[in-house]
Amino acid sequence: MDFPVEILPALAFYMFAAITVASGFLVIFAKNPVHSVLWLILAFFSAAGLFVLMGAEFLAMLLVIVYVGAVAVLFLFVVMMLDINFEELREGALDYIPIGALIGLILLAELVTLGSAWVVGEDITRNAAAPMPSVAEVHNTEAIGQILYTDYIYAFQGAGLVLLVAMIGAIVLTHRTRTGVRRQNISAQVSRRPEDAFELVNVKSGEGVSLTPGKKG
Amino acid sequence: MVFNEVIPNLGIALPEIVMAVGALALLMVGVFSTADKAYRLVTNLAAALLLLTAILLITQVGGERQVTFGGMFVSDGFAIFTKILVLIGSGISLLMAERFLKEHNVAKFEYPVLVVLATLGMMAMISANNFLSLYIGLELQSLALYVLASINRDRNRSTEAGLKYFVLGALSSGMLLFGISYIYGFAGSIEFDVLAETLASGEASVGVIVGLVFLIAALAFKISAVPFHMWTPDVYEGAPTPVTAFFASAPKVAALALFVRVMIGAFPDMLHEWQQVVIFISIASMFVGAFLALVQTNIKRLMAYSSIGHVGFALVGLAAGTQEGITALLIYVAIYLTMTLGAFGAILSMRRGDGMVESIHDLAGLSRTNLPMALAIATFMFSLAGIPLLAGFFGKWEVFKAAVNADLVPLAIIGVLTSVVGAFYYLRVIKIMFFDDPAPAFEGGAGRTVSLVIGVTAIVNSPVSFLLISPLTVAAAWAAGSLLY
Amino acid sequence: MVDAIYSLFGTEGPFLYLTAIVLSILAVVLPLLIAVAFAVYFDRKIWAAVQMRRGPNVVGPFGLLQSFADGLKLFLKETIIPAGANKAIFLIAPMLTFTLALISWAVIPFEARVAIADLNVGILYILAISSLGVYGIIMSGWASNSRYAFLGGLRSAAQMVSYEVSIGFVLVCVLVKVGSLNMTDIVLAQEGGIWNWHFIPYLPVYVIFFISALAETNRPPFDLPEAEAELVAGYQVEYSSMAFALFFLGEYANILLMSAVMAILFLGGWDAPLPILDFIPGWIWLLVKTAFGFWLIAMVKAFVPRYRYDQLMRLGWKVFLPLSLFFVVLYSGLKVAGVPLFS
């Protein structure tokens, strides 16, 4: 198969890259916040495409599952539910453009000067050689697993604790135990037997029955 | 194919592991015990857990410097010393919280769990030997603190404090990562040991310096040093008082220790580059702490500015960059911890019929309504001001001495001058307590623990401290010595 | 699959390669769409049979052409866009749903290594695409500018995000044994007859997966996003003609996909139940197993009443999540211990 499929990845790269950058811009410039989030999702998605082209399928899929499939859904959720007039919020935002632009320019200048000053020294290449298995030997999912659970186990577990704190925090700050709410008690419902629920009474004609409420609730 | 079959040496990180597992267990205990008992039970267990961790740490005293987890985690004398201080700060502020939290309906069992997790984050920060573990420790601590600041969510001030802290904290984390990325790009590593080695050989490139500046800015935010102190007064005032007491004690120690660890551990040969920055923020903090505190009327805000000033003094020790300087910093921090815990214990006792009061003028004439308390507060204030014979004086003396010995005479002079200005507002509090017309008396204390803490810290800060200062100096010198290997 | 078609051309060239790609896509999508049409018919017939009705029986022999007639009718109707709707998103939403329902099929293997794309991370790809499916619904709910639609969209988003978690854990259970994320490898691990199939050791997680798949595809008893009694038709309420048809097709294509994934994960994919039946082509076995999965799903629709929303959430977070986590630990433990069936 010597057909020149090489051009396809290149095409795909330019397509994904262009979409990523363009939707990145549109995230900022979209008037409607819901549109912003949707553009953000598109940006994530095309970034995942770029990962695939780099041969990091696992990361690409995780990006889609975690960011697009869960995080951005919650974003969208919140943005859709909030009753905020974003036009009003934007009023006066223009006043901040000079200072924002200034900071942006300073950072850009820094990046440019540093970028031009950047040389890969001997030390750097030696230091930066991360303990990574070669791609040819193992599959990238396996490679990530191998260093994540050995060399970076401390960071991995630490990150887990950070997430736990985030979870506790979210619950502490939002959960309210409301009183006076009737809750479903599933085990009580399931364990309820006919004999607890009703009784058969043989009603003699002309006598009727006397109801004893609460006895067999 | 397995790359690294060696299981990291877990024994070195045993205190942290015990804490982490303990925190998870506490969470379970809290969830499955009845709602009204959960807080008390979990608090006591959490205090026991902190004590256990401290004991485990003490068993490590005297050991060599050891690293584990692929060099991410380091345990040395410095780490043990500061971790014990952090545990003391966390434990005491946790135990002092009970009555306040119950009265404000925020006595949830998550509170002690979050304190434990924050403390774990601080220990991870102190033991960080790699920017990755630094960042994770920092985030673990910060995230728990953000939640704690706004734990009284029904009160606008508390949520505002949490939100402000969160937004600015996120900004500083961003700066931190930005700085780290520069350092990684130009020095090629995020490991402190490798960085120290790499940077020792020759001129540091401009990229590393830029990264370093961002890094220092972010760390300055965490220790609330000027010019990154803006959040401190608002957060201290808005957060519930026991949380403020916690903020002012343990995280401060941890962040200062982290600052030292990064500067001395990763950039020992760039002393001249970072020294200027540290001197600048030290002087600025001392000035702001002294002058802005003059106009405060809220005692929590006053303590916030006071803590900014004290960070400035502590940084004098770091600016010296010598073993003597680090020793002085550690002594300073240890003494500061006792002063601040005592002062917050006193603030927690300021209650009248309709709840807590926070104005300085509520202390008026305290000497006539409650003399022991007035004396205790006076001790803290004198000590914070650095009046000779009290503990606070030793700390200041040590840092200024270290600065002079490191040829930083102007810095020491500025430090002395600002502490004179600072003394004014501490003395004002004393004047209000002893010479103003009495305000209505405070109601009964905030519980036995708080009274005990006030008593003990007052004694520790009183001239009795003469007895304690020499063992402290020995321990601090040992800790500082382990850092400069 | 693409390469096989490409080699059929005899000559080489970029356009031929592209043609081969398009042809292999068509070879999957066209039968799929026809299968969807019959799946709808099948669904209605089963439902009718359970309720002792006849179901569609007028158009064509036994009513077989009913779906096509319905489709034709929908295509001929007018597309109505509500005045307050956000037009672009309103129209993109059904297209998105439909497209996503189709592209998941790219990694489904019909025989060993016969898939449009035999991805290394095939199963993650399916999970990723199915997690994207929520956007079609939430976008349509929002863009319709109608309360019913919006509520439906929100319900659906929360529901799908919740059940994805346990689906993920179920996948982990299976992957721990197989040691690969590739769909073909998953089937190859179960080759050699019915006693090797995963549904035997993995029965509990198969059940969890099945129920989560119902929630993930908004099928009864978890069809709350379109609960007709409360929300009229949920997110679809403002849709008509083509746009509605796209939603409808997408929904059934997703159901078939979930059936196929269950067949691959737990029922041995294309593998024949007994080695002597190997002469029957694998894709027929896959078809039969998918049809079995679909039959189960259709039966559930017929005899289980709809859940209440809080019950749905409770089931997802308080029952399935801990349970599936427990099974992850259990199966990993069994694998580490080297128990034959699980490692």
Automatic annotation (TrEMBL), chain A:
UniProt keyword list: Cell membrane, Membrane, NAD, Quinone, Transmembrane, Transmembrane helix
Primary location recorded for the protein, binned into one broad class: membrane
Location relative to the cell: Cell membrane
Gene3D superfamilies: NADH-ubiquinone/plastoquinone oxidoreductase chain 6, subunit NuoJ
GO molecular function: NADH dehydrogenase (ubiquinone) activity; quinone binding
Signal sequence coordinates: none
NCBIfam families: PRK06638.1-4
Protein name: NADH-quinone oxidoreductase subunit J
Automatic annotation (TrEMBL), chain B:
Membrane topology of the entry: Multi-pass membrane protein
GO CC, one annotated term: endomembrane system
GO MF, one annotated term: NADH dehydrogenase (ubiquinone) activity
UniProt keyword NAD present: yes
Predominant localisation class: membrane
Localization of this protein: Cell membrane; Endomembrane system; Membrane
Annotated EC: 7.1.1.-
Protein name: NADH-quinone oxidoreductase subunit N
Species the sequence originates in: Kordiimonas sediminis
UniProtKB/TrEMBL annotation, chain C:
Top EC category: translocase
Pfam families: NADHdh
EC number in record: 7.1.1.-
The entry's keywords: Cell membrane, Membrane, NAD, Quinone, Translocase, Transmembrane, Transmembrane helix, Ubiquinone
GO cellular component terms given for this protein: plasma membrane
Predominant subcellular localization, coarse grouping: membrane
Subcellular localization(s) per the UniProt record: Cell membrane; Membrane
Lipid bilayer topology: Multi-pass membrane protein
Source organism, top-level taxon: Bacteria
GO molecular function terms attached to this record: NADH dehydrogenase activity; oxidoreductase activity, acting on NAD(P)H, quinone or similar compound as acceptor; quinone binding
Transmembrane segments: 15-42, 88-110, 122-142, 163-183, 195-215, 244-270, 282-303, 315-334
Reactions performed catalytically: a quinone + NADH + 5 H(+)(in) = a quinol + NAD(+) + 4 H(+)(out)
GO biological process, one term: aerobic respiration
Similarity comment: Belongs to the complex I subunit 1 family.
Assembly and oligomerization: NDH-1 is composed of 14 different subunits. Subunits NuoA, H, J, K, L, M, N constitute the membrane sector of the complex.
PANTHER family: NADH DEHYDROGENASE SUBUNIT 1 (PTHR11432), NADH-UBIQUINONE OXIDOREDUCTASE CHAIN 1 (PTHR11432:SF3)
Biological role: NDH-1 shuttles electrons from NADH, via FMN and iron-sulfur (Fe-S) centers, to quinones in the respiratory chain. The immediate electron acceptor for the enzyme in this species is believed to be ubiquinone. Couples the redox reaction to proton translocation (for every two electrons transferred, four hydrogen ions are translocated across the cytoplasmic membrane), and thus conserves the redox energy in a proton gradient. This subunit may bind ubiquinone.
The protein, known as: NADH-quinone oxidoreductase subunit H
Source organism of the structure: Kordiimonas sediminis
